[in-house]
Write a structure and sequence with these properties.
By secondary structure, the protein is mostly helical. It is globular and about 40 Å long. About 18% of the residues have low confidence.
């Protein structure tokens, strides 16, 4: 009887966890901690290795409900549905997580990270919320711009321009970490015009110093 009552309790507690709504708070976007049992579970080990690649940090957080927005499929174009107003979402760490998610190459993570990053930067007060995060956002964008995938690089370039438009001259001190990756692709005809336009906008938003 005791063992059965314990099982019932544990089941009900699991159900509570699954059905509880996601709060729009900093805790909602915290990186999930893997359970020790996950490493020891032989079911997760595939000797052929094709399907055992662990999900990326962004994919894991998205799967656990740590990104408070979801992809809505539309007949003409897709859009994001936020579980609460973007203005109420904590930028730290969500904006950084979305920036890291720009490296994703799989749907829906590609769309969610790109649109989520863009829409967060459009909310009122975004400048004040974003500037303190630059030391963490810039390394994330640097990794995106260094990616071998052309689409990932394109998303990174768009995100950099969006970021520059929001934080203005505050980005100037960080530009040196990003320009190397831009210059590498400048030789590529595919990106030459787009990078040139992006550099002009960085200069426009950053002022004479940039």
């Amino acid at each position: 009887k005791m063992s059965s009552s314990i099982q019932i309790k544990s089941k009900s507690s699991v159900q509570k966890i699954k059905t509880s709504p996601l709060p729009c708070s900093p805790q909602a976007a915290v990186k999930p901690q893997p359970k020790p049992s996950d490493k020891l579970n032989p079911k997760t080990i595939d000797p052929f290795g094709a399907h055992t690649r662990p999900p990326s940090t962004f994919a894991a957080i998205y799967a656990k409900g740590g990104i408070p927005c979801r992809l809505m499929h539309g007949s003409v174009k897709h859009k994001l549905q936020w579980e609460c107003l973007p203005e109420t979402v904590p930028f730290d760490p969500l904006l950084v997580i979305l920036a890291e998610g720009l490296r994703e190459t799989k749907h829906p993570y590609t769309f969610v990270s790109k649109e989520g990053f863009k829409e967060l930067l459009m909310v009122e007060g975004a400048t004040e919320k974003t500037i303190p995060l630059l030391p963490r956002l810039v390394p994330a964008l640097k990794a995106v711009l260094a990616h071998s995938d052309d689409e990932v690089f394109g998303r990174g370039l768009d995100a950099l321009v969006q970021l520059s438009a929001v934080v203005g001259p505050s980005l100037n001190d960080h530009l040196k970490h990003l320009l190397t990756n831009l210059s590498r692709r400048l030789m590529n005809k595919k990106f030459k015009e787009k990078i040139t336009v992006a550099l002009q906008k960085l200069e426009q938003y950053g002022g004479k110093v940039s």
